[in-house]
Design goal:
single chain; alpha+beta; 12 strands; about 25% helix; 3-stranded antiparallel beta sheet; globular; 60s Ribosomal Protein L30, Chain: A; CofE-like fold; 2 domains
Amino acid sequence: MRAIAGTPDELRLRALRGLPAIVPGDDLAALLAHAANDAGVRLSGGVLVVCQKVVSKAEGRIVTLSNVTPSDPARRIATEDGKDPRHIEVILRETARIVRRGPGVLICETKHGFVCANAGVDLSNAPGEDVAVLLPDDPDASARRLRAALAVPGGEPLAVIVSDTFGRPFREGLVDVALGCAGIAPIDDLRGEKDLVGRTLSVTAMASADQLAAAAGLLMVKDSGTPAVWIEGVAPRGDGDARALLRRRESDLFR
């Protein structure tokens, strides 16, 4: 399924600012709709990229470290890496397996199947000095709920992407990727189509949801107070879960 109708000539990105500090139980969709209205944005015929942190906070995916009792493995790793054992314990609870360990680095496969630093458990921009923010339980479900609440009756298709910053093997730096999506095919499958000289494409499948998340990430700098970005110029098509972006174990040459 093609993720985007046609080939866009331009993309227009608009930062949605002005959200208050999100706390568990907040109606995130209503707050995003208000921010969009303030920015003069109609959430129709485009893609809304929402950072994972505000989704997790609204869904109550936060842990107060003072309530965490570290296990022996957490204490051992924390001692070796110079980290807070309570933080390590929360990471281990979110981890299906530890992929790699290095000096002060813990790369984990989460229960969702994501491979990332610290199982996505983050202390930055947390609502308190002693608080960790976890990834959403089901980022695809989070995206679907936001899309259902934000869709304009009678409007053009709306897609929602929940994004987070991940590191990448073999490359320095972080880039935003899609943890969850709704209202758009996460992969733009070009296999079977022709290239410019008429050759049939056999392996080209573009991670469109990741590309859109990365584009939005240019406006979502951590100290910018930008929890969401509206992207116009694309006509989202199809549907699907962002977990389709996870490479299957049998085809992963690096496991």
